[in-house]
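Researcher: Here's the sequence for the chain we discussed earlier.
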Amino acid sequence: MTSVHQDRDTEPPAGTAHRRRWRPGSLEILGLVLLLALLLRDPLQRWSKVLPSGWSTVFVAICVQATPFLVLGVLVSGVIAAFVPARFFTAVLPRRAALAVPVAGVCGIALPGCECGSVPIADRLMDRGVRPSAALAFLLSAPAINPVVLVATAVAFTAEPRMVWARLVAGLATAVVVGGVWERLGRPEWLRPRVRRPVGDAQGWPAFVDAVRGDFTQAAGFLVIGAAAAATLQTVVPRAFMEHVGGSVVLSILAMAVLAFVLALCSESDAFVAASFATIPVVGKLVFLTVGPAVDVKLVAMQSGTFGRRFAVRFAPLTFVVAVVVGTVTGLLFFGGWR
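Model: Thanks. This is the structure I predict for it:
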């Protein structure tokens, strides 16, 4: 009773119940930032000299590279919210987690996008009743095993065609293992999806537009934060560093895993970067291709904004360790040694 009276005491006065205070959203803030950037262009140019060389180029490249796939992801998310009834997912995915997680992981092959677009889709899947472990398995598998990524890998590694199959196996195995671990050890209070206005089954275009706008403004801001962090770290790592780690297989695996996390490359283009490391053993290159689509600084920022900080600080280390181990083991099996 006390809580009810307290709630009533906090209600707005009569006649103002339907009047909402205007608050600037992400798009308004972005517009203000762009306007200030134009007005303060000369001071910003002088200040940018303190940044590492090439920082702005890397930052813009990451944003431009990721934005189309982020848009694809939120469009798919909007379709799920507005046109796909919740009962569809309960009918498609098995009820048992032991089957739902691998099935969701295999479904990732159907989405031609990168990791930026898979975050809002996984969030929407949970919103539609999919168990978190299965949605997270899809989140990890979609950017790693979709056809666009596999074709790009085949083109980049024409001299090593087994890399395509090795990447497919490592990416899917990472998604299934992480999903299975989360099913057993994850707690509901660690995962806090963004609160949305209730959406019923198949509400049509108004619900679609509302879901797309909400998901995009939510994810885009954290994409920018992650891209800024990735650009800063990418321009700080010296190029000569890679020449020193290539002589040690263990060191090269660890270095490539850290670089994949730091560089935050799009999964459609990371194969070309991995292939360019001529001094790195092929196992290290596979670890790079396994870790990158699963966890990087950009993804940590987006997942923190979408699912909550308590989720990100647990999910990111788990994914990183599993991806490194799975990538290493898969590389040894496919390439027959530490070469």
